[in-house]
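A note on notation is needed here, since sequence and fold are reported together in a single record. The reader may check this reading against the record printed directly beneath this paragraph.
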Amino acid sequence: MRLATLPILVIGMLVLGAPVLGGSGQQPAQRTPSGQTTTREAEESDRPSDRTLRIVTFNIQGARYGSERIAAWLRDQDADVVFLQEVRRKSDRQPRGQTAMFAEVLGGYHWISGDTAGVAPERHCDVAIMSRRPLSDIRIHDAPAGGRVFAISATIEGPSGPLRVVSVHTTSTAKLDSERIARSAGQRFAEMAALLEYVRSYEGDIVVAGDFNAAPWMPEYHSVTQELTDLAPAAMRKKATFPTYRPSLRIDYVFARGDIHALAYEVAAVRLSDHAPVTAALKFSRASSRTAASQPTTMPAHGGESKQGKNEVGRVIRTGETLRRPDRRCGG
């Protein structure tokens, strides 16, 4: 090839979009409103394998920093499951509630919250779950001290079979006086004990995520790690999640039981709340020890529906409540 023709050839290749000096020649992937990329290459590289689940846990502080900003950030994460805390329920000022709003804006999510789980309006319940996969066997977990729901859980079809997912928000220490510190610690211990009793009663794989209001050096954290594994790698265990204006405490976690580990784990460096969101890509290395046939016989709970996702209608049960096995002869 004559050297004089080389510049012409290079210019032609650039115009036609051909790779030059190792370039890919692909146009940047564009995201649609549902969070999906528009090029096949981006979809194949961005999407996890069949045994991977992408999750987010986020205390959104009632979306004080703006619902639109949070929704835009969540869209970029394109998570399979989102664990939310401090979500505002529906009211006269907000007829649909924040979880329903996020699910509708993002599209493709099933969801459960205090509004859809039948929690009385006067009772405090600020936990929620959004999932790309249908949610069933919904349970609300009452705080032993009463007056509030501190966790909500459901079953999804995970990468290796049925997977229990639990969104948690334990009692905080709002005021740093000795009486409040002692009382809130006692309430958290009771909530942790109730949570772990439920975890022990469930036979299969489980992911528990949320705002635990307990740092790793506190005994509440130690009690949880006797039953569940903290999925954060060593480098991330020193990364504070609260408060975002002066990060000093790690109190937001992703715990699990089963053959599950984190391929990726990040405390996001964004100011969308007083808590930093945590993202993780979870790898499931084997089939779940709990088969579909061994799932509880409870009906799926009524939840919300987004433009692309819908929950079936059924009954929500509280922790400790049991349902009679349906009589198949009567079609129940």
About this structure: The radius of gyration is 23 Å. Residues 50-311 form a domain with the Deoxyribonuclease I; Chain A fold (CATH 3.60.10.10).
